[in-house]
Amino acid sequence: MKLDLVAIAPPDFDIDVTLAYATEANLTGQPVYRNAECWLHREAADKLAAAIALARPLGLRLRIFDALRPVEAQWALWNARPDPEFLADPRRGSPHSRGVAVDLTLLDGERELDMGTAFDAFTPLSHHGRTDVSPEAQRNRLLLMGLMTSAGWDFYRNEWWHYQLFDQRRYPLVSDADLPRPMM
Predict the structure, then answer these.
(1) pLDDT tens digits for 37-94?
(2) Does domain 5-178 have CATH number 1.20.1250.20?
(3) Does residue 110 have an active-site annotation?
(4) Which residue, 73, 129, 154, 177, shows the most beta carbons closer than 10 Å to its own?
């Protein structure tokens, strides 16, 4: 399969890539990715570049927790925690497994802005529009949403960190073997 994937890494992208699933600090308790490769479909990469450009004049940068997630990785997450409120059922396919979704936060220098919960906190407090997180966290979530939606991304209402392309189903699912350099 010929995929139009772009490696998301400095210097091409002024971004901090900290892939949670390449470490033990994720919902499985062990690394899901053997190689911390960060990929997006070219159209998603272009929208990410637009979001980076919008954040720059504010003195902010983006930190990516996850981007393209091979189908095999989606199954690993689903098998560890089959929760359709926070994870796409791999039988339907995740936008991450199509290379058109990104999980991220905002950085001020090296400091992550307070978003009210940690990444992958599978709790209703992670939903957008929560007024029971601090006013600072509410502002930071809305700032991230404003940057990402202005750059052409859609948001997922249950996760403040998740953004995807609007027409994600038109992109094919990607397996680890399809990647230029395998992740798993």
Answers:
(1) 999 999 999 999 999 999 999 999 999 999 999 999 999 999 999 999 999 999 999 9
(2) no
(3) no
(4) 73
